[in-house]
Here is the input.
Amino acid sequence: MGIGAGIAEEFAAQGATVFLLDRQEELCEQRAAAIREAGGNARAFRADVTKPREVAAAVEEILARHGRLDVVVNNAGIYPRRLFADMTESEWDEVHDVNLKSLFHVTKLVLPPMIARRSGKIINISSVTFFKGMAKLTHYVAAKGGMIGFTRALAREVGEHNIHVNCITPGAIRTEGEAVHADPAAIAEIQSRQCLNRRLLPADIAGPCVFLASSLSDGMTGQTLNVDGGLILY
Here is the structure.
């Protein structure tokens, strides 16, 4: 399970109606079906967040059917590893299009109805690598740092409309994608440097995400919550 799926499951478990957007249509529908089978309310939309027309179509349908969007979680991310010296411009652009520019596309579409209702929570999922740095991920770390800057600046602009914009920086989370991209030895080494000597799971990110979406965080905006098992302390 990925971070996005874990967040969606927890929101549904808390009674929210969940809309999942993913460019992998079959996987997205599987996640939505699993939520429904567990008693939750979820619907899948095939949408590539780097393509504003696809995002717009999904947002328009959601608003037409349900009339409102209370919470938006920007979680799209890819992290192909490459030494900066060997990195091509197209590789740099792809990571920034998915990890950072997607915030522009999605947020531009969801802000107007939130402003009209004078209510909304926007939660951006960045990465602890912005604070730590990481070799072979210069493009990824730069984009994730941009998400934190985006969060702070947008919070300044939309606070007057009672819209909250916050960020979470996960550490090393055990996901399906990790099994494909990560070196087990590197993961073990990261865990050894955490204060909490266990693997972090998508649920560890989902809980703070629900907190930021709830009224319990109404006094917070422009903030970044670090959820990394204490890795950043070393």
Q: What stands out?
A: Residues 122 and 172 are 23 Å apart (CA to CA).
